[in-house]
Task: structure prediction
Amino acid sequence: MALLFCEGWDKYGPANSNSTAVSTLLAAGEWTSITSTSVAVVAPLSSTGQAMSITPNSPTPVITKTLGASYARLIGGVRFASNLAGTVAGGIGFGDAGTVQCCITINTAGNISLRAGGATGTAIATSSTTVSANSTHYLEWDISFSNSASYQVWLDGVSLFSGTADTTVTANNTANQLLIVGNGSTSQVITFDDLYLFDTTGTTNNAVLLTSPRIETTFPSSDSAVQFAVGAGILGSNAQRVAATSAPAAGSLVLRRFTPAAACTLNSITIMPGATSAPANYRGVVYADSGGTAPGTLMSSGTQVTGVTSGTASTLPLTTPQSLAAGTQYWLGFINDTSVALQQSDAGATGYRAANTYASGAPGTAPAMTSGQASYLLWGNLSGISGANYNEVNQQPPPGAYSYVFDATVNHEDLYAFGALATTPGAVHAVAVKAYCQRSDSGAKTVSMRMKSGSTDSGGSSTGQTPATTFGWLASYFPTDPNTSAAWTGANLNAATSGFKVDS
Result:
């Protein structure tokens, strides 16, 4: 195969400025390690999805992707924008077991350099062409690794420089890591999007593209043919998109609006405390909707939960689980007796609040609510979801153990339909199928990511993969349409289904 890796930073969820949460997501299988103190998922540099913004505030690699082997030559590209602040800007590096062999930097003056070693290393070549601050461009490379190696770097499809030089620091003439490198400047910000990485094997994707390619990520939109069972579901999101906390007043009724995509049963509501309080009391509540903009009648309330711990999810069980209809809006939340800081889900103000006497319980009909309150991080925990496996695996970012399907039967497979591409592509260079999965038993289970095009069901570049015992990403690549063995067309890709299968 030639496609080693591709990344659009789309599957980590909507725009997110909480660097701790983003780093955790990035390190869950796709990227090996993240040491930057400032990383965020932001608006895309191309027309779809998201991008990653980073302050590469270290002279060592700040994000590392360890590849499956060592390579004598790597070809790739990435879309970028830089504020050109600091002294020597960071960029893309190529490592050998943690040592940077060479790297491409976007310099303060706006020109591009290939450097020996890390971002502060000696420049092998520097472009006369410059970019302006915060402008978007596509950078590509074809670099071999040896004491006398060939290299070439392009910007927006135009060659910047090429030549022969020593592109290694270690004794090995290979690289086994893709790196994002910095120089210790805390004022520099670089945004990356639409990254691809090739080797030179195979008959496709073994040369620089020079087409400013865009990576578009789609998510399951319906079941096609499913055999896995639903393990758990979530209504809302458990992702912390900001680090901010806020404390609702003591004696509050706090609600947010949610609409389930599938019929289900709501068993409990989870909140994320931002402070610790041993005596604080909470009860979960769910209200019917009244006219679309206000809660109406109390549908269910919960047993009392006493005491919360900062950073530890607190689940508020409902006394009677509540059936929810697909496509119907509901209001989920809690009543409290103590003002305790809670984690916010994002920077929005989508919450509602009213004063409520805790000892009297949840009101049978919701009082007038004040809108524009903090978007507290809360979600519903679901069961009884039937005919909607796709609904448990299409969230971004993925909830892990809060929402999943499962199976242990060899050859059982789930295939899903996906939304059509945003536009008809001029060319489809490759397709990646990725799953966020975990092995929950002690057996030697293996899985494959699947793509079914026409009558052909294929495992792509990697079958028989062994999931870890913690959730992480697995991927397989499909450089050509498995049904025709020719290049993908947009129509064939839109008609294909994808999913995963138990191999052994």
